[in-house]
Specification:
By secondary structure, the protein is an alpha/beta fold. It is built from 14 helices and 6 strands. The chain folds into 2 domains: 224 residues, P-loop containing nucleotide triphosphate hydrolases (Rossmann fold), CATH 3.40.50.300; 59 residues, Histone, subunit A. Strands 3-2-4-1-5-6 form a 6-stranded parallel beta sheet, sandwiched between helices. Helix 2 links the parallel strand 2 and strand 3.
């Protein structure tokens, strides 16, 4: 039996990533059918079953074409994080590799992709009491209170974290306070060995083209019933899962803070900014080979050649 910590060229994880609305779903479906592969989602927003329209989760027709994993598999009420996803995804991959040489993982959540490909640092487990204290501070004083505290405790991590993401801020603060050391010092960023080979491709478009697709997709979401989806989730708006683009802007509309037109424009603006942050993250990964989503033949040839 092979050592499970040694890369096995007979087991290949194909990662397809890129910014929101770039065209990952369509391209991945094409690849999965051509390569007879199953798809594992690494889009942290698509994990939640109650959030279908606003996360652009694959529809029933797409899910019937190719077997997907980790789409709508948990509830917004469940506690879930990148560490649990790493464990769940690796377990699922072990199962899938029994029947498939190649599995496709796709999504735009860079942290979740990195967790599966390279592993997470062994940081201390969350402290329930401390987490509740920080969440209470966040609820009472807003996200700026988390930013100020992190800037004080760990200026290095503060300079590189997405300061618009309260989950990342909360986790870093937990570690800083619990250990008495900066979060940035404890992150070793040492890749863990995996028992599969990894091929990464990234999808990209010209800025104007991507922005147009983002705007068009938001309009389609509204036509498909996003407003009603968000209306039904109002009682749960305090949950972390719902503190995300496409939902929080419409909560402002229901609060009377914004007109519907302004809320929709904010979704488009915030989605474009999110795409820009995603590309900044992905461009740092030199192992990604970049393609335009329309280069289906070139991508398939590239994957097949690398898989030999």
């Amino acid at each position: 039996m092979a050592n499970p910590m040694i890369t096995d060229p007979k087991r290949i994880l194909l990662v397809v990533t890129g910014p929101t609305a770039v065209g990952k779903t369509s391209l991945t479906l094409h690849l999965a059918r051509a390569l007879k592969a199953e798809i594992l989602s690494a889009d942290s927003r698509q994990f939640y079953r109650e959030m279908r329209i606003g996360t652009a989760r694959p529809g029933d027709k797409e899910l019937q074409l190719v077997l997907h994993h980790f789409t709508g598999h948990i509830s917004i009420h469940d506690e879930y994080n990148v560490s649990r996803f790493e464990s769940d995804a690796l377990q699922k991959l072990d199962q899938l590799f029994n029947d498939h040489k190649l599995v496709i993982m796709t999504g735009g959540s860079g942290l979740y992709i990195n967790a599966v490909c390279h592993g997470m640092d062994d940081l201390p487990d969350p402290d329930d009491l401390l987490r509740e204290e920080l969440k209470t501070m966040y609820a009472r004083e807003g996200i700026e209170s988390l930013r100020s505290k992190l800037r004080l405790l760990d200026p290095v991590y503060y300079s590189e974290v997405d300061i618009a993401n309260p989950k990342r801020l909360l986790r870093a603060l937990e570690v800083c306070i619990k250990t008495g050391r900066p979060f940035s010092e404890l992150r070793k960023n040492e890749p863990k060995l995996r028992n599969f080979e990894i091929i990464k491709i990234g999808l990209t478009r010209e800025k104007e083209e991507l922005n147009r697709r983002i705007n068009d997709r938001v309009d389609r979401m509204m036509q498909d019933g996003l407003l009603e989806e968000v209306r039904q989730l109002i009682p749960f708006r305090h949950l972390n899962a719902l503190n995300t683009v496409g939902y929080k802007e419409l909560f402002d509309y229901f609060d009377g803070v914004l007109s519907l037109e302004s809320a929709v424009e904010n979704i488009k603006t915030h989605s474009r900014r999110y795409a820009k942050r995603q590309m900044t993250w992905f461009r740092k990964d030199k192992s990604i080979t970049w393609f335009h989503p329309d280069q289906e033949t070139e991508i398939l040839n590239f994957v097949q050649k690398r898989s030999l």
